[in-house]
Amino acid sequence: xxxxxxxxxxxxxxxxxxxxxxxxxxxxxxxxxxxxxxxxxxxxxxxxxxxxxxxxxxxxxxxxxxxxxxxxxxxxxxxxxxxxxxxxxxxxxxxxxxxxxxxxxxxxxxxxxx
Length: 114
What we know:
The protein is mostly helical and about 110 residues long.
């Protein structure tokens, strides 16, 4: 089971890493033909924000799980745990916002969005 999961994650990583390369290759081909290569840009932007949302959701869930377990074991430390949790969740969420900006940048570069 671990091998299958590892191979699936590796395949997803390869697709995510190669999507921008395919976008730029299609963009160059479309410029040579006089068209616009917007379908691969939309695919790359969708994959980027999807992977970012998935990763940040997992990270936030694990952080919240750890914080609630810590508070359940030591209710007296809930103030420090909550403060650290909020700061950590804000930093994790900033990664999703950066991915959103990169996705919008890809779409704007292809003149699809505006």
